Amino acid sequence: MTIDSWVNETLYPDWGQRFRVKRELARVQSDFQDIMIFESYSHGRVMLLDGVTQITEMDEFVYQEMLTHVPLLAHGDARRVLIIGAGDGGVLKRVLQHRNVEKAVMVEIDGEVIRLVKEFLPEIAGDAWNDPRAEVIVGDGIDYVRKAAAGSFDVVIVDSTDPVGVGEVLFTDEFYANVARLLSDRGLVVNQCGVPIMQADELRDTSLRRGKVFADVWAYVAAVPTYVGGYMTLGWSAKDPAARHATVEQIRERAEKAGILGQTRYWTPEIQAGAFHLPPYIAEHLPARG
């Protein structure tokens, strides 16, 4: 269908952005949410869930690279990775770029998201769906985390919607306690915490919850243009406080060994090290300075 209209994002009641739509590609009401994929004039193809921008072809690499490469390279030897959400497959693709990863399990609750992105946004995941190291489960991430064996993963990446609706259960005390249990001795978890200039409560509340079960709780930042409001914060929780303080030289060496050095468009060793140095307006919402 060819149309000439605008789509207005509905994340905030008093502020937002809009896209001029070239062509609507899909509009589906799944069992969990309203899914819309369209071709824009400015950002390539765009996916909205319940009216909120999730991914655009123009800048998806920023979010995906920082959500994936930072925890894997901070850990330094992550072999088993659990991904909760991330139905577009972009995180899965970047996890599998790491040669040392032996298994990546992705649990996405909404199978319609996976089906639609395979059809309309195939470049986001590329061939990741068919990688023999990947196990893609359409199911409840809460249930999976609850049942997973202790110490069964090295890194957990939580790529969820905001803590309302289908994403709300991924921000609870029980969820993070179970994540801590399934992580190995040096394990760590990262999760999206919103844009703090508008969603400071999200960063503050989830940091307090994570702080109940992890030795090191902090955040790092990435500038994703279509997540309006400046920096996007990514929550950081690690059993080993030293992981956050890996040097540029250590990160570069690990990236070269993993095979991703020079393969990214936003992430670099310097960007990773610098991303943990937060502006005061963000750091003030964390439970401790570090």
TrEMBL record:
Sites binding spermidine sit at: D88, D159, S160, T161, D162
Its Enzyme Commission number(s) read 2.5.1.16
Write out the catalytic residues in the record: D159
UniProt keywords, alphabetically: Polyamine biosynthesis, Spermidine biosynthesis, Transferase
What residues bind S-methyl-5'-thioadenosine, as annotated?
Q33, E108, D140, G141
Q: Where is the PABS domain?
A: 4-239
Its pathway, per UniProt, is: Amine and polyamine biosynthesis; spermidine biosynthesis; spermidine from putrescine: step 1/1
Q: Catalysed reaction per UniProt?
A: S-adenosyl 3-(methylsulfanyl)propylamine + putrescine = S-methyl-5'-thioadenosine + spermidine + H(+)
Top-level taxon in the UniProt lineage? Bacteria
Answer whether the UniProt record assigns the keyword Transferase to this protein.
Answer: yes
One GO biological process term is: spermidine biosynthetic process
- List GO terms (cellular component aspect): cytosol
GO terms (molecular function) for this protein are: spermidine synthase activity
Q: Which PANTHER family match?
A: SPERMIDINE SYNTHASE, SPERMIDINE/SPERMINE SYNTHASE
Tell me, in a sentence or two, what this protein's role is. Answer: Catalyzes the irreversible transfer of a propylamine group from the amino donor S-adenosylmethioninamine (decarboxy-AdoMet) to putrescine (1,4-diaminobutane) to yield spermidine.
NCBIfam families linked: PRK00811.1 (NF002010), speE (TIGR00417)
**Which family does the similarity line name?**
Belongs to the spermidine/spermine synthase family.
**UniProt subunit comment:** Homodimer or homotetramer.
Q: What is this protein called?
A: Polyamine aminopropyltransferase
